[in-house]
Write a structure and sequence with these properties.
There is one protein chain. The protein is α/β, with parallel strands linked by helices. The chain has 2 domains: 3-167 and 341-360, Glycogen Phosphorylase B (Rossmann fold, 3-Layer(aba) Sandwich); 170-340, Glycogen Phosphorylase B (Rossmann fold), CATH 3.40.50. Helix content is 42%, strand content 17%. The protein has 15 helices and 13 strands. The protein has helices at residues 16-27, 66-79, 90-99, 115-120, 124-133, 145-152, 170-174, 202-210, 228-237, 252-255, 273-280, 291-297, 309-321, 323-337, 342-360, and strands at 3-9, 32-38, 54-57, 84-88, 107-111, 139-142, 161-163, 188-193, 217-222, 243-247, 261-263, 285-288, 302-304. The strands form 2 sheets. The protein has a 7-stranded parallel sheet with strand order 3-2-1-4-5-6-7, with helices on both faces. The protein has a 6-stranded parallel sheet with strand order 10-9-8-11-12-13, with helices on both faces. Helix 8 links the parallel strand 8 (188-193) and strand 9. Helix 8 crosses helix 13 (309-321), helix 11 (273-280) crosses helix 14 (323-337) and helix 13 (309-321) crosses helix 14 (323-337). The longest helix is centred in the C-terminal third of the chain and has 19 residues, at 342-360. The radius of gyration is 21 Å and the shape is globular.
Length: 361
């Protein structure tokens, strides 16, 4: 007998969590009937949903809609005789908890980031809402050990928790063998991927690249966001010709093959899927020396001291002057990234789905 699972997220816009949301639903086995609910537009990914029985938008416009959204969600749950809820991100989780206050339906909530940074610091009340709505029967899925430890600093969990690393889309593994060979000591083509916003710290990368002018080292930054104007102004003001803002692209798995190394400088990450994708293609990585980066890469890549320009520049020059290191990091990246294949993610997720269902049954 098929299991009716309701998957709940804030939007179906083209973000990292949303892309993975659509891809894992489409890949779930036939034993699950999938009902998708999202709070509000944008909804660019809606046409890509295939493996679904029904899709609903709650038309959320603000906090005043939370009670009404909880009631509507409850109605959808009853209509489809939902056996399991799987929520993603902060507000869908809160609404789902309110909707099932008097229900025994198993609820799995998926934490994609450091909740202290994305929810609690911007609004201290969100921490108390989380504490008030969390129940021991709720199961938590974290994208990394780092995200789990961050959550548990503020919320005492029941032990009903699991770490499930994000997966890398199949296209990145298929193209892994077609990268261009590295040209020793002639040029070093660096690439960074991520939404343009202060958290991603692209301005730090640009300032570091200022110090590497005229050495055959370039940086292309892929992504869009509100931070673009400020970054573009800085590049123009300082005449930094070896750094380019390339915008958002659909075929990153094709584009990344043309580069020699991947760099990031984010202030924090829950799990950096862009790095995992780069590793799957065999790109060596230079990233901050903090727990989440070492977790995602298994300690196999090169690291720099966070927010230290000298440390980053030294790391780049080390790669530039030691092309054999690029090959070593590339091989290690591909070997470690195998654990991020989609089929392994789906197998673990199915086991997590059945665990609370067995307890409930």
């Amino acid at each position: 007998m098929a299991v009716n699972v309701l998957h709940f997220i804030e939007t179906l816009g083209k973000g990292g969590a949303e892309i993975l949301f659509v891809e894992y639903i489409n890949a779930l086995p036939e034993e699950f009937n999938n009902i998708v609910v999202y709070m509000r537009p944008p909804q660019e990914l809606l046409p890509e949903l295939q493996n679904v029985k029904a899709v609903y938008c709650l038309n959320y416009t603000g906090k005043k809609d939370i009670p009404g959204n909880a009631l509507r969600l409850n109605s959808i749950i009853r209509r489809h005789q939902v056996s399991l809820l799987h929520t993603h991100l902060y507000w869908p989780t809160i609404i789902a908890r309110l909707s099932t206050t008097f229900s025994k339906i198993p609820l799995l909530f998926h934490v994609h980031s450091l909740i202290s940074e994305d929810a609690f610091k911007p609004n201290i009340l969100s921490k108390y809402v989380e504490q008030l709505t969390y129940r021991s029967r709720h199961a938590a899925i974290f994208v990394s050990e780092t995200a789990m430890k961050d959550y548990q600093r503020y919320i005492k969990t029941s032990g009903n928790t699991a770490v499930l690393h994000n997966f890398v889309r199949d296209s990145f593994f298929k193209d892994a063998g077609s990268r261009q060979p590295i040209t020793p000591n002639k040029e070093l083509r660096l690439v960074s991927v991520g939404n343009l916003k202060p958290q991603k710290n692209q301005l730090f990368l640009i300032k570091c690249m200022q110090q590497l002018s005229g050495q055959g080292i370039t940086l292309d930054i892929y992504g869009e966001g509100d931070y673009r104007q400020e970054l573009a102004a800085y590049i123009k003001q300082h005449n930094i010709t070896h750094v380019k803002l390339r915008g958002s692209k659909e075929n990153l798995h094709d584009l990344l093959k043309e580069y020699d190394a991947f760099v990031m400088a984010s202030a924090y990450e829950g799990f950096c899927i862009a790095m995992a994708e780069a590793m799957a293609l065999g790109l060596p990585c230079l990233v901050p020396d903090t727990s989440v980066w070492r977790e995602v890469s298994g300690g196999t890549q090169q690291y720099f001291e966070p927010d230290n320009e000298l440390s980053f520049v030294s790391g780049v020059l080390h790669l530039f002057n030691n092309p054999q290191e690029l090959k070593r990091y590339s091989d290690a990246a591909q070997v470690y990234a195998i654990r991020y294949k989609k089929q392994e993610f789906i197998a673990q997720l199915v086991r997590l789905y059945y665990s609370p269902l067995r307890k409930d049954g």
